[in-house]
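W.,

You were right to be curious about this one. When I first looked at the sequence I had no strong expectations either way, so I just let the prediction run and decided to look at it fresh. Below is the sequence, 326 residues in total, followed by the output.
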Amino acid sequence: MGTTDRRLQLLAILQASPGVSAPALAERFATTERTIRRDVARLRELGYRIDGSAGPYGGYRLAAGQTRPPLALDDDEAVATGIGLRLATTSGASEVALAAVTALAKLQDGLPARVRARLAAAGDVAVAARPNMPPIDAGLLTTCALACRSNEALWLTHQADRSRRPRGRDVQPHRLVHVASRWYLVAFDVRAAAWRTFRLDRVTHAHPTGTRWPTPAPPDDPVAHVAGAIATGGWQHRVVVRLFVDPDTAATLVDPTLGTLHDAPDGCLLEIGTDDLDWAARRVIALGLDLEVVGPPAFAEALAALGVWAQDVASAAVPPSPERSG
């Protein structure tokens, strides 16, 4: 065994068995205690804090130091970690979910084939972050994450919406983004020669091509790019309302995924893309702001219908009994 291999294994043993003695380590590696002490001294120089104590119950322990040691996992631990990371990819917390994807990609990239097969055989444990959210295959997430990390092109089969057939796309991935409990891939679409946003629950297949396409500069803010695509791209209706509030206040109230704001006299304009005017009416009313419908007329009708429904609900309310009111 080479010196580097022995020191890496020494770190792994100290992680798994704190308090192991120099004689036990020397026997484990078929070397001398002097060599073990020299290895420990070298690891300390590299920033690993290894505490040592004498006596019959003494030994070496790996403590928190300046440098994070390599994480050594056996096969069972690696599979369990992979399953846990898959579950974490559906967390409602965007930063946690994104970190889980990149960690899972690194884990799978470094696993031996036998362990990768065991992890795959563990089944699809991806679950929706909310009951009405579609599940995402963890393998698809890690494939996209690895492609973003290695700047490797992907061939995607993507369904633009529920009414269209899946289409193949050559893309150069840039960034995974987690917004509103969904995963999106920001990538350069080679055929369209433009940056696009792909909703991953509508991607049925993805595989790396081993190539890299030249691309223009990517979006400065991938999250804002995705939010803008969600708000205005590919919808049946384009709703525009005037909000009688200053743009700064509106920006604190309007979720970027709901719509985009534009400066306008006497307030600002809110532009919403939607296939469901009733949903848009409820979201706009929930803002609690004075507003004016610019268009389309069907949206004004949806607002009126919502008002009639609210009035009917209020009229049907049972008045409190005298006992309760007293």
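Here's what jumped out at me. Confidence is low (pLDDT under 50) at residues 123-131. And, maybe more interesting for your project: The first helix runs from residue 3 to 16.

Coffee later to discuss?

I.
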